[in-house]
């Protein structure tokens, strides 16, 4: 199924451009009597009605927040270099009698969206979002056009409205994906308002391969008393990861602060602590972690923010004005050191397959549980 899906997706993306059009992206419709304009343009408003025709004196009043009035000979009002705050209704009067209203909408065409889609754990839907560089106008709308691809049906089209969040400064929408779903998707974002529209480039993804966790959180690096070359590292799964069933494997990297080269470790799965045993004496080190689903499904997370730590430094007794007898601590591990298992990871109580130490047994246990849809669909 995976090979077929990859070939299918590659064929679609290599097809002529017409085959990749996911939906019609057009400017929003406005009322027939509404005048639309771009900022900086000159606009002519025409007072409706036969009474306004001829050489008559017309009074104009802007109904927006600013109190503005004009008097014209004839039924036209010329507005130069209009701006966004000129949007509103313009009322025209003859001898204090209202002849009509002319709506004006000044808007900026949307910028071309740069769409990204992600899925933070295998149990949630995919999120597709775009962060515009400028705040969009109030009339701007966004719609996600998509196509689901499988070996039996290539025409399963859909479209979803995407909401703008003032807090996150982004448009986003959710593409429903069931647990274990292996369907391929191709999506594109259409952003439009009254004066224009733009579509993003197509984004293709497979439901499982797109899983990308958030970085591990609460990373702590601490010294271990009596161990001048050891650093203890502990962390937690990101809050967005559902660890009740799916587990993460982790990769650790560290370096002295003055170095640009990292030492990298791939860590055992059931582990949220480890010990660095080859740190440099008395030197501050930079430590980072990233995570991925335990069986390699999906992508590595981004690296966690850098955290620094310095190994234990042997205290010196100078109270008497002379150097005291230092504790003899070897540079390298030897048989006289304390049992390192004292600092090793202790597996916590975990439900179901997570209590099984063998990853193959965990995978079998996970596959034996009921699904919304089969894993091999």
UniProtKB/TrEMBL annotation:
It is a single-pass type I membrane protein. InterPro entries: FN3_dom, FN3_sf, Hematopoietin_rcpt_L_F3_CS, Ig-like_dom, Ig-like_dom_sf, Ig-like_fold, Ig_sub, Ig_sub2. Residues 1-19 form the signal peptide. CDD domains: FN3 (cd00063). One of its GO terms (molecular function) is cytokine receptor activity. Residues 16-116 form the Ig-like domain. Belongs to the type I cytokine receptor family. Type 3 subfamily. This is Interleukin-6 receptor subunit alpha isoform X4. It comes from Cricetulus griseus (Chinese hamster).
């Amino acid at each position: 199924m995976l090979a077929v899906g990859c070939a299918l997706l590659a064929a679609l993306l290599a097809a002529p451009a017409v085959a990749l059009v996911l939906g019609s992206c057009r400017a929003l419709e406005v009322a027939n009597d509404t005048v639309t304009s771009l900022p900086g343009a000159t606009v002519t408003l025409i007072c409706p009605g036969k009474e306004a025709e001829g050489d008559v004196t017309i009074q104009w009043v802007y109904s927006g927040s600013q109190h503005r009035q004009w008097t014209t000979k004839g039924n036209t009002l010329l507005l130069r270099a209009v701006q966004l705050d000129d949007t509103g209704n313009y009322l025209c009067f003859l001898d204090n009698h209202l002849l009509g209203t002319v709506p004006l909408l000044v808007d900026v065409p949307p910028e071309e969206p740069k769409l990204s889609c992600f899925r933070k754990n295998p149990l949630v839907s995919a999120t597709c979002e775009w962060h515009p560089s400028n705040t969009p106008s109030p009339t701007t709308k966004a719609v996600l056009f998509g196509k689901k691809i499988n070996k039996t049906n290539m025409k399963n089209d859909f479209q979803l409205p995407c909401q703008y969040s003032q807090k996150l400064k982004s448009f986003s929408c959710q593409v429903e994906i069931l647990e274990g779903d292996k369907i391929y998707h191709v999506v594109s974002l259409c952003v439009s308002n009254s004066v224009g529209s733009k579509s993003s480039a197509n984004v293709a993804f497979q439901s499982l391969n797109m899983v990308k966790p958030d970085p591990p959180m609460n990373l702590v690096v601490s010294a271990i008393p009596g161990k001048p070359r050891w650093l203890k590292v502990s962390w937690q799964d990101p809050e967005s990861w559902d660890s009740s069933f799916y587990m993460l494997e982790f990769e650790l990297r560290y370096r002295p602060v003055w170095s640009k080269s990292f030492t990298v470790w791939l860590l055992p799965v059931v582990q949220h602590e480890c010990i660095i045993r080859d740190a440099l004496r008395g030197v501050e080190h930079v430590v980072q972690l990233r995570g991925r689903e335990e069986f390699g499904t999906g992508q590595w997370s981004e690296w966690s923010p850098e955290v620094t730590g310095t190994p234990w430094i042997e205290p010196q007794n100078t109270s008497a004005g002379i150097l005291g007898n230092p504790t003899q601590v070897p540079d390298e591990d030897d048989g006289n050191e304390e049992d390192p298992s004292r600092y090793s990871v202790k597996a916590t109580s975990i439900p179901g397959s997570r209590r099984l130490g063998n990853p193959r047994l965990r995978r079998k246990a996970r596959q034996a549980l009921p699904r919304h849809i089969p894993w091999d669909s």
